[in-house]
Amino acid sequence: MLKVLLIDDEVLVRSGIRLILESDPDLEVVAEAGDGTGVLELVRGHRPDVVLTDIQMPGVDGLEVTRLVTAEPDPPVVVVLTTFDLDEYVHTALRHGATGFLLKDTPPRELVKAVHVVGSGEAMLSPSITRRLLTEFAAGTTSASARARLDPLTPREREVAVAVGQGSSNAEIARSLELSEATVKVHLGRVMAKTEAANRTQVAILVHDAGLA
């Protein structure tokens, strides 16, 4: 059972998303709110696995929600909800530690699937959407600081990092590098530790900023 905290200022949107998610017996919306006020109390009290938050809200917006939640010890994954796939705030949210994003018009079946995917720690939605988002918002020039953060990686860890930057799932990386998925997870964990990335999305952004994907 994956527990979800839902934050959106539109009551109808929240109700619709709750109905969609709870149509799956393995998903439960444990709490909801109209903005990010008191989000840490909700997270600590309900211990959700996934936080779905709108970006633009009155009061405490989704960017601040993301920053606050990802700073918690052993935080839930944060997914931002947006009306447009090129929302100007999405990339900032990802840099704050959000795992990914969902469009509010995502078909119900895909919404349920996406929550399961991100709850399991995998890439958010399809690789093509991930690559498009990173390409649109990543820095226009190669970052020397990003390259420096990747320098401590071993050749195999760098291969895994680049594959993540290309939007590949752990299963796809395992097949391409002829490794087990468990080994890929170990390498990815070391990549995140060495680069101080909070999640695989931040690894992907780092790889793009370094000009490697």
TrEMBL record:
Residues 3-119 form the Response regulatory domain. InterPro entries: CheY-like_superfamily, NreC/VraR/RcsB-like_REC, Sig_transdc_resp-reg_C-effctor, Sig_transdc_resp-reg_receiver, Tscrpt_reg_LuxR_C, WalR-like. The keyword Transcription applies. It comes from the Bacteria. CDD domains: LuxR_C_like, REC_NarL-like. Gene3D superfamilies: 3.40.50.2300. The modification 4-aspartylphosphate is found at D54. The keyword Transcription regulation applies. Residues 146-211 form the HTH luxR-type domain. Keywords: DNA-binding, Phosphoprotein, Transcription, Transcription regulation. Pfam families: GerE, Response_reg. One of its GO terms (molecular function) is DNA binding. SUPFAM superfamilies: C-terminal effector domain of the bipartite response regulators (SSF46894), CheY-like (SSF52172). GO terms for biological process: phosphorelay signal transduction system; regulation of DNA-templated transcription. PROSITE patterns: HTH_LUXR_1, HTH_LUXR_2, RESPONSE_REGULATORY. This is DNA-binding NarL/FixJ family response regulator. It comes from Amycolatopsis jiangsuensis.
